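Subject: Interface between my chains keeps coming out wrong

I've been trying for a while to get a sensible model of this assembly. When I model each chain on its own everything looks fine, but I need the whole thing in one frame so I can look at the contacts. Pasting all components below, labels as-is. Any help appreciated, I'm running out of ideas.
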Amino acid sequence: MGNMSSVREGGDGGSSRSRAGSDDLMGQSPPHSPKSAPQLPLLFAPQIPVTPLQRQEEMQSNNKGLPNSITYDDVLDEHGIPTMINWNHGGKEVFVEGSWDNWKTKKPLQRSGKDFSVMIVLPSGFYQYRFIVDGEWKHASDVPWMNDYMGNVHNILDLQAFVPENLGGVAGFDMPQSPESSYNNRPLGSEDFSKEPPFLPPQLQGTLLNAPTSIDCPSSARLPHVVLNHLYIQKSCSGQPVVALAKTHRFLSKYVTVTLYKSLAR
Amino acid sequence: MSTGAISTSSSSSSTSNIAIVPPMLPDASLQVSNLRISEADIGISRDCISEFLSTHSAYELLPDSGKVIALEVSLPVKQAFHILYEQVVSPVDMGIPVAPLLDTCSGEFVGVLSPLDFILILKEVPNGTLFWPMLKKSCIQLGNRGSNLTEEELETHTISAWKEAKQQLSSQMVLHGQSQRQLIHAGPYDSLKELALKILQNHITTIPIVRSLLQEDSFPHLLHLASLSGILRCICRHFRHSTTSVPILQQAIFTIPLGTWVSRIGESNGNQLAKLKPNESLSRALTLLVQAEVSSIPIVDDNDRLLDTYSRSDIISLAKDKVYARIRLDETSIYQALQLRNNASPSHGSVTGQRFHTCLRSDSLLKVMEQLATPGVRRVIIVEAATNHVEGIISLSDVFRFLFSMP
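Reply #2:
Try treating it as a single job with all components included. I did that and got this:
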């Protein structure tokens, strides 16, 4: 159940908090907000503790004193990334071997016409590999390669867990026209404040701030881009004059959610 | 900062007298080498890693969807304490109880609040004279009562007042690098090498990555709090499958001049490893954490077996239920403090690294680096397999000092 707040909040002028389960949003933008845009009321639910991802680490040393630990990347290992490896430079029989299994096994490539290819599922990481074409070691010069200090040449595979969005790469993408309606810039008057505020679009609830995520898997918490550049506010409930403001903004391909704790006391 | 060293000199033991002891069970899958490593191999490894760090930028440290918090500098210190406590125990965060401070008047980031600040406050404030010039009339309660900090005192002191008091304090104590007033920060296009050097040279643990916008009236954008752990994660990810190009990764750690080790009988090793028993007082632990400039102390029992560790960041657990206002530091034992910490975050045993991480002397450097690359882990304790005796500590800064051949 939410709180009903009156049209003019005396004194503090902040938005009131709503509970997690309710869809109603009771909040008012104060008439003299320090920011010019009205602030959207926040859904900071009380943090529901969730067990973090189960990990098999045994961190307490037992009587035998043998530690066993699994690095955090092992959690990402569950999501292998399918990768195509191609060889376009002729030959009869082509294999590929790589550092993903310490150069132990050779995978044959399937032939289709003059090109060879194979699909491998690998966890995110940096790998070196090379081709064995009719019994000889070769590298493909049209894909990234490097020399190592012993003078060998290897091809490189740098698998990222996320392919960054190529913002300029969608050919022929036209922005859709805004729907027909009347739009104006008139500042809000008192009759606007007497109405119910519009419902928060459900996409904006997908913010990092409300959902408990495990702390070391940031790549699995990729936010929908609709929450970018919206300002969230939480008024502290314990009576302290502290307010939390949060916004998610984009820097190149990464999203950063910044929370600023500000004191209200003047 | 170096871990486990009482003397002010560096933490890495000297390169010339590593005793070669019979190897323990080597890690079969990685063919750990127990032979003495050659200088040439060390040089090759250092060059390789150094080249990698120079060609990658701090942008790669940013997670795809990251979260940072910032505190306004006029917040009361107590609020800051509770905010950082919630960050550490809630599942939604990175587990680092450090926050940059924003001064909204000047629009700049002016500093960083870290667990060391809280430790100093809890220790020093009972000496009333420290805060005397800063006090408002309404909260004059200090004196030489020698008792614990009341809620009012923490409540009304703002972070900015504390930072000014800390200035005075640092002129009395020798605190590494605390006399700077400028925020040490980095930009997103700085190379990883510059970032690591900044962290090491300034003896800090986290550095905010800030993107300053050139338009007026806009606050700088805080992007990430980078630490050596993130940089090490990049290194591990890159080299984990290419151990032939970095030969040092397959060496057992006892063959490398790295970390702080308990001196064995017959060896003259200048640095000692600080250890404490669980019945010693919390104030002794905090004094040791500050003066020895270490970030964590192993807690051992009477037979020198490792029980637990107490770190600087564990001070945040005192914020639960406002315990800091009720306890006396010199009457609380470390054992009780560890109980408090375990109660404060019961589900976070293995995730935030508040529980300690151990390894064997025969583990390869790559394995230790992978452990250190886990978020929240800053040190690994080397124990003996059978008896669980503490043999040494390797911390993140030890590894990087070795890689950059810094003393």
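Reply #3:
Confirming on my end. The mean pLDDT of chain B is 74.
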